[in-house]
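Meet my pick.
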Amino acid sequence: MKVFKTRKAQLVGRYVGLVIGALIYACGQNIFIRPMQIPMGGAAGISLVINFLTGFPVGMANLLINIPLYYWGYKSMGRKFFVRTVVSTASAAVFLDLLNPVLPAYEGDMLISALYGGVVMGIGFGIIFRMGGTSGGTDIVAKYLNEKKDIQVGSFNLVVNLLIIIISSVIYGRFESAFYAVITSFVSASAIDRIVYGSDRQKKATIITSKPEEVSDEIMKATGHGVTALRGEGMYTHEERTVLLCVVGKYETGTLKRVIETVDPRAFIMLGDVNEVLGKGFKSYGQ
C-alpha cells in the first residue's frame, strides 16, 4: 500500500510539473515574444502567424495544429509519453489564451525581449521535458519520421524551424526578427539543458594503455572514481590492448591527465563531454 501511494504521488507530481512548465512557457511567450513579433519554430510559430493574420487565438490554433499530429504520436511514442504530450500541449494552449489579456506585454528593446523570452520559455520547456513530456508539433513529426524513415530528428527540426522562422519574418515585415528568433532559440535551448541536466557536466575518458593495472590504480587513488577495463585489439598491429573507461568531474581532467602521463606517457586518451551521470560518486537516480 505504501509503494502504491508513493507511485501515485510521483504520478501526480509529474503531471503537476507538466502543467507548471506549460504555465511558465505561456508567460514567456505572451510577455516577451508575441508583443515584439519575434518568430518561433514549429507549431508555435505557425500559431503566431495565424494569430497575426486573422486574430485567431494562439493557443487554440496551436492545439488544432497538434490534434492531427497526436495520431502519429500515439503510435510512435507509446501511451504514457503520448498522454504527457497531450497534457503539456493542451495546458500550454489554455494558458496562452487565458493569460494573454491579463499579462503585461513587454514592448521595449527587441534583444532584451529575445533574451528574456528565451530564458522563460526554456525554463518552461525544460520542466516539461524533465517530467517526460514534449512540446508537441514538429517534435512529434520528427520522432515519427525518425522511426519510420530513419530521418534524423535534429536535422528535420532544424530545416522545418528555419523555414517557419524565415516565412514568419517575411509575413511580419520585419526581416531582422529572424535574427532575434535565432537568439531566442539558442537561449531557450541552453535553459532547457540547464533544467533537464542541471550543472551535471562530466568528462568521460577512454584510455588505451599497456599498463592498465598501474594506470587504473593511480586514477582511483587520485580521483576516487572507479575504472572499468575492456579487452581490445589494435587493428594495425593486431596486438591485444586494454581499454580503460572512467568518468571524472570536469575539474578533475587535469589530475587525470597528469596521472596517466606519469604512469604511462605512451597511453592514448580520448576525453568527451557527458551531460548526465547517475551512480555512485555522482547523481542518484532520484535527482
About this structure: The chain has ten helices and four strands. Residues 2-197 form one domain. The chain has two domains: 2-197, 202-274.
